[in-house]
Amino acid sequence: MNSKKKNLVCLLALLLFTTGVHAGARKTVYPVVFAHGLSGFDNLLGYYYFGNDYGTFVGDPCDEFLETACNGSISSSQKALAASVTPFQSSEVRGTQLADRIQNYMTSTGATKVNIIGHSQGGIDARKAAAVLRARYGRQVVHALISVSSPHRGSPTAKYILDLGPGVTSVVNALAKLFGNAIYGSGNDGIAAAKQLVYNDYSSTDGITTGMKAFNTNYNVNSSNAAYWGSIITAQDSINTNPALYLLKEGFYNIDGDGYCVDDCDNDGAAGKGDGTRGNNDDDGLVGINSQQMGDRLQYNECALCFDWITVNTSLGYVSNLNAPTSAQMTSKSSVVSQDHLDVVGVPPDTFDEEEFYASILDFIVSKGG
Amino acid sequence: MFQNKKILYTILTSLIVLFVGILVLRPGKDKNQKDFESLLNEGKVAESIELPNLPEDYADHKLMEYSIEEIARILQEKYGKNIDNPAAQIAMIEELMKDLPKLYPNDWVKVLNQILGYAFPDKALELLRMSESLYNYNRFRESNMSKVGLMSDDARRAMMWKERYRLFGEKADQIWAMEKKMTVIGDTLKRIKESPAGNLDAKLSNYAQTLKEQFGKEYPRLMENKRQQLTEGFMVSVQKDLKVMSYGERKSALREIRQTMGMDQAALNRWDALEEEREKNWQNQQKYSEKRSQLSTKKGGMTAEDEKQLDALRKQLFGEEADIIKNEEASGYYRASDERTYGVN
Question: What are the TM regions of this chain, as residue ranges (chain A) (predicted)?
Answer without folding.
Answer: none
